[in-house]
Amino acid sequence: MSKPTIYLGGDHAAFELKKKIVAYLQGKGYTIKDFGPHKYNPDDDYPDFVIPAARAVARNKNSLGIAVCGTGDGACIVANKVKGIRAVFSNTADIAYSSRHHNNANVLCLGGGKTKDPTTRGLGVSFALAKKILDIWLTTPFSKAPRHIRRLKKISRY
Fold this sequence. Notes:
By secondary structure, the protein is α/β, with parallel strands linked by helices. It has helices spanning about 15-25, 45-60, 75-80, 95-100, 125-140, 145-155; strands at about 5-10, 30-35, 65-70, 85-90, 105-110.
């Protein structure tokens, strides 16, 4: 089975993490389409980059997305506004696994942790943990168990 194309989007608060993710995944042979930001801008907004990445995932069935922002929460909220997206926030290997195996998630959201807000500073994942989460998330197949298919159909109908 061929590797999926990976679409990425983020913001300044996860800019460094996104750059590392792009290089890491390219080194593993993935085709990457980076929607930005492509340069650090402390005034950018994650919806401007995450929405186009999520739309690309929704249009391209053999693709997955990665969305990053300071905490990962905002990126997840906005990605889930796109029809056909099942975005999940993960900061553990177990969540990464179950989100693919049970829910066939197609966008992974991570926190980069670089924020000015003292209430969110430090909530991102380290690059070492991000690699572990990515490796599990990108290689875990959907179980196709009847109960999971049934649940996903209900979500799609809604």
